[in-house]
């Protein structure tokens, strides 16, 4: 996936300004940056949730807007943070929606199998018949990820997947997302606020400030004292833990 | 065996509906007995065919239609308190009927139904446009705005009816009743059947749209198109019921809520139960309406209003308690998880 000169303006204010980058296939890419830097907007544009103003997004050699929405949903899944729905669906029913782009309302044997695999993979087997509104935040988030797995897309996009999760659930979520890339060979792109999760679990990092990309590259190149100070306007200390540059800020 | 076990609730509802339907046929001013019909008593067979059977079918269609319309609207609007009554659909249909009475006095029932449908569609659409534009934070605001909007339309309807001296003619459509249901004047209510089948076909689409715009787009479902189809189905069902029996409130609000409490929100799983429970509820209310002051009859809207409001309050209380319980349970769970990790 290639993004060229992507721009989005809201009420005369340019939120995303001439953004160019290429998403490395089969890797984990994190978009970081302060609030209002435009990272979420970029994420929403490359997943066709909102329309771009100008620029070009090429997905698998074809312009994004030339894709049929249904075809795209077999190759690219997006999980936004607005999933606090009150809907009383069971985990299994939710995960089954992941097969909708393929089989519509008529699930076949293969679909059922993929649904069960996704549920087992996310360790939700015990609670597959429980209603999602009765689950804890971490469990519900896992149910949504299971749906994305059932959707069986090459690209998985997530908008702040650790939002509202405590440390235990958040770090488990990050491990799962890493597994999606390593074991299921998916390309994972996410917007993250916790720089250390981004540094520890991603391969590449893309940093935004004021709608522009300031840094893009492998984790070690982006997560440095100077870069982070430029991005967040706060002093940082970098310490290496297990070969990953983790940052300390206060 | 598995099927029976899994769908126990549905079979119980089906059985009850059949029994009450049968009883409903034999309630009325004129005597009618099974032996008479089997004994080829023509006057009794006539009553059955001209009055009792049409009435029963109209009741069933009304119950099924209004509850399914309510189910669709609640799902699409992501709000448990939206229904044809609280979404201005019924009052718009009534306004449409008044317009027909005023401007095309000689209209056939079909013309009336079509125009009522158009008004119901338009009214529902304006309302949905409103609530989508404004995006209320508080769930209660959504139906409140609908009730306000419905009352504004109702006010205009009353004013126009008064100006054209149509108040009396219109009153038949303002309060729902089945006493005018006779062969040849009610058949339009059958439209409910194909519309409910349509709703069943689109059930999963409605569910997905009910999960939100982003969720739908992610699965390649066109949010606006499905919203349009769903609301159109709901508005057309409502209009075809209102044209024949008048306004029937509460069904679309309480029946889907009752079923969802036990069976969840997956429409494919609840549509049949919702339809059956709606039919059963209207049947029971209709029998009460005919029995309470026999040989006279109360408008069914009155009985539904009384029973419906009691059930509605019960649902509200349960939702409040249940909501609190869910939060407490969640806190406990995280505490346990916290302790174990």
From TrEMBL, chain A:
PROSITE patterns: ABC_TRANSPORTER_2. Residues 1-235 form the ABC transporter domain. One of its GO terms (biological process) is iron ion transport. It is found in: Cell membrane. Pfam families: ABC_tran. Gene3D superfamilies: P-loop containing nucleotide triphosphate hydrolases. InterPro entries: AAA+_ATPase, ABC_transporter-like_ATP-bd, P-loop_NTPase, Siderophore_ABC-ATPase. The keyword Ion transport applies. GO terms for molecular function: ATP binding; ATP hydrolysis activity. One of its GO terms (cellular component) is plasma membrane. Keywords: ATP-binding, Cell membrane, Ion transport, Iron, Iron transport, Membrane, Nucleotide-binding, Transport. This is Iron complex transport system ATP-binding protein. It is a peripheral membrane protein. Its main location: membrane. The keyword ATP-binding applies.
UniProtKB/TrEMBL annotation, chain B:
Its main location: membrane. Pfam families: FecCD. InterPro entries: ABC_BtuC-like (IPR037294), ABC_transptr_permease_BtuC (IPR000522). CDD domains: TM_ABC_iron-siderophores_like. GO terms for cellular component: plasma membrane. One of its GO terms (biological process) is siderophore-iron import into cell. It is found in: Cell membrane. The chain crosses the membrane at residues 12-32, 53-73, 85-106, 113-130, 142-162, 188-206, 226-259, 271-293, 299-317. Keywords: Cell membrane, Membrane, Transmembrane, Transmembrane helix, Transport. Coiled coil: none annotated. It is a multi-pass membrane protein. GO terms for molecular function: transmembrane transporter activity. Belongs to the binding-protein-dependent transport system permease family. FecCD subfamily. This is Iron complex transport system permease protein. It comes from Breznakia blatticola.
